[in-house]
Amino acid sequence: MKHMIACSVMLALAGCQPATTATSQTPQTHSSKQTMQIVYPETRKDDVVDTYFGHQVADPYRWLEDDLSDETAAWVKAQNKVTFDYLNQIPYREAIEKRLRTLMDYEKVTAPFTEGKYTYFYRNDGLQNQYVLYRQLNGGEPEVFLDPNTFSDDGTTSLAGISFSEDGSLAAYQISEGGSDWRKVIVLETDSGKALETPLQDVKFSDIAWLGNQGFYYSSYDKPEGSELSAKTDQHKVYFHKLGTPQSDDALIFGGTEAEKHRYVGAEVSEDNHYLLISASTSTSGNKLFLKDLSKPDSKLVTVLDNTDSDTYMLDSKGDTLYLVTNLNAPNKRLVKVQASNPTPDNWIDVIPETEHVLSVSTGAGYIFAQYMVDALDQVKQFDYDGKLVRDISLPGLGSVSGFEGKKNESTLYYSFTNYSTPATIFSFDAKSGESNVYRESNSPFESEQYTTEQVFYSSKDGTKVPMLITYKKGTELNGKNPTILYGYGGFNISITPHFSATNAAWLEMGGVYAVANIRGGGEYGKAWHKAGTQLHKQNVFDDFIAAAEYLNAEKYTSSDYLAIRGGSNGGLLVGACLTQRPDLFKVALPAVGVLDMLRYHTFTAGAGWAYDYGTSEQSEEMFKYLQGYSPVHNVNAGVRYPATLITTGDHDDRVVPAHSFKFAAELQAKQNGENPTLIRIETNAGHGAGTPTSKIIEQYADIFGFTLYNMGIESLPE
Questions:
Q1: Residue 380 in contact with residue 397, Cβ under 8 Å?
Q2: Can you give the residue range of the structural domain that contains 692?
Q3: DSSP notation for 383-432
Q4: Residues sharing a CB contact under 8 Å with residue 558, sequence separation 6 or more, in sequence order
Q5: At what angle do helices 694-711 and 93-104 cross, to 10 degrees?
Q6: With contact defined as beta carbons under 8 Å apart, do 510 and 102 qualify?
Q7: How far apart, in Å, do the first and last CA atoms of the chain sit?
Q8: Which of 397, 649, 662, 710 is most solvent-facing, going by the fewest CB within 10 Å?
Q9: H or E segment at 470?
């Protein structure tokens, strides 16, 4: 079983924010706008022109795509100097950093899980850069099993997942250096903690699927020629690594031929080691599925699904019966079962049929747990393996839950509950009786009872009703003067559900309003909601977000003078598109690690795999024109007064390469009209966000919130 670190501190793109002991809830504003003189570095322009379907498009900053050049490195250094000179002059920046540090400095412990004879859990004593993996034997004293804080001096090497063999005697863990998606895999004997062999290199976008104690399946690409940061990766492959043999001898299981050419391929082994399932995708949505009977050494891969029209994966197996979660003919997902001897869709039988609400499923203690998303809030039901309802599970309130998973022989499971103002509380759950008890309360110093979250529904441009959760301090006067951050994502079938973060808490303590719009492109209402924000419908996503901002203004939560928009990755595209389409609507824009050059995104790393959501400029003239019409890099116009903008990225981001942010910053700096700053903050030795050390999170958000409040004219923080 594999275990990823699921702690809000580590989810850098999910939104982290500052801390305070404030009692007054309204910051003091400037009577007149404060300004700082900024002299931007000169960015060379070249005469680079591309032709798409007979249309010529200039790309003057193409040279910034070369992450190996000395000139790009010098540009990064010059931009950072200007940016940090500006940020260091903000009078309350250090106070925000102190608030952040205070709110993050408390013990955080995850739910326990059992592997072999040990119980494991993650713990952070407060300000440790990375969570530490502990274990204990039979309720004895916990001991450190893996401490990622020792992996590097600056905390930038992180534990990116761990998987244990069936009996728990072996473990394989992945490490990420500098935030890279390229990983190393280290195999340990769990009793002694001794590394058994030379670490595997160059593993990417991979789980570890053990086959007994023999070895494990993993996935990777051939190492690209040229830059490891930006070079395109096309063909994902599954290998089997037999313990005690060199990686060069690993057997190629799937991939490596034109017929098996896919961008994302993954392997999974059933808990009883009977079946291997391989999922193969050409994009981030839809997968083929193949099955191998591991009890028969010479058995061939059998095709379960021969197309990528749906998303399907194995939940569990029971004897010869496979349990699959799928959205085939069920946009909100269903659970089906099928005999492994005849696994194709025409033989599938519903166990938990599709409903009007989006389904996600887990198993533990011999039961199935169905988690339903109702307007971006969670409900949970317990079923047996025949699909008979055992009980509705009562949750502590409106928010998000995670957990309800474990091995079949366990009797006690765990789950956590959280929302935007409630730190995560862990509950134990007796699967037989259905009784829940508090297992571990949060030690967060945040006084959540002073804050409230309300859900509203607003109309988008085309009349579509969109939900939004708005969190603020009780008693806040809706006078249009509250500093507000509007957050969104809107893509890749990803649902944004409520979770607590210490940095958001600090924003709330400083008198801020935090709003999250569950816009189209996400998965909050199933596949139909996702598809309504893809390709030639992508503008719906931006319209939904703009309508959210207009609602906040109309209802006096804030006004355009106090409104900031934030999003990361695909959410960075969201912010970039909205600030170029409606620059009048926002005071501050905060695009993070954004996909900002929509004509060339598919030429870098695994970017072509995002075409399901975006389409590509090579696809058709219609798609080219559509992408050009909203691509942030191509829609910065001279003479326009854009919001104060702080672009953030990492110099080692090999998911969304930093060239997107570099080119967007250059365009804004060249064409901005007026005195609003357009800055780029480039974190060194950092990637797309996962595994970011606590120290860097604190620094980043002190800068982000300082920049935001300063450009809203905030003179001082609440006392």
A1: no
A2: 46-102+446-716
A3: E-TTS-EEEEEP-SSSSEEEE----TT-SEEEEEEEETTEEEEEEEEETT
A4: 480, 481, 482, 483, 484, 513, 552
A5: 140
A6: no
A7: 48
A8: 397
A9: strand 465-473
CA-wise closest residue to 138 among 116, 153, 123, 157 = 116
Q: How do residues 171-199 score in pLDDT, each as one tens digit?
A: 999 999 888 888 999 999 999 999 999 99
| Distance between CA atoms of residues 94 and 91, nearest Å | 8
Cα–Cα distance, 99 to 403 (Å, whole number): 31
| Full-model pTM | 0.92
Nearest Cα to Cα of residue 303 among 273, 330, 278, 320: 278
Nearest CA to 513 out of 471, 543, 476 is that of: 471
Which has the closest alpha carbon to 713: 91, 84, 190, 205?
91
Q: Number of structural domains, the chain? A: 1
- pLDDT one-digit tens code per residue, 565-602: 999 999 999 999 999 999 999 999 999 999 999 999 99
> 197 lies in a domain?
no
Report how far residue 511's alpha carbon sits from residue 472's, in angstroms, rounded to the nearest whole number. Answer: 8
Residue 460 covered by a domain: yes
Amino acid residing at 240: F
Residue 618 forms part of a structural domain? yes
By CB atoms closer than 10 A (0-12, 13-18, 19+), residue 646 is buried
φ, ψ at 197 (rounded to 5°): -160, 175
- Pairwise CA distance, residues 476 & 651, whole Å: 40
480: left (phi over 0), alpha (psi -120 to 50) or beta: left
- The DSSP 8-state label assigned to residue 452 in this structure reads E
- Which element (helix H / strand E) includes 107? none
> Which residues are known to be catalytic?
569, 688
- Between helix 502-509 and helix 694-711 the angle, nearest 10°, is 30
Pair of tokens at residue 18: 């500052």
Q: Which residues pair with 682 in a beta bridge?
A: 649
Instruction: Put the strands of the sheet holding 302-305 in their side by side order.
Output: 264-269, 275-281, 288-293, 302-305
Nearest C-alpha neighbor of 502 from the set 95, 10, 14, 100 = 100
Residue 14 above 50 pLDDT? no
Burial of 699 (0-12, 13-18, 19+ CB in 10 A): middle
* 124 lies in some domain: no
Contacts of 153 (CB under 8 A, 6+ apart): none
Count of beta carbons in the 10 Å neighbourhood of residue 302:
15
Q: Token digits for 454? A: 């309300």
**Per-residue pLDDT tens for 200-227?**
999 999 999 999 999 999 999 887 776 6
Paired tokens of 153: 């001096």
Q: How far apart are CA 11 and CA 501, in angstroms?
A: 9
CATH number at residue 680: 3.40.50.1820
490 with 522: CB under 8 angstroms?
yes
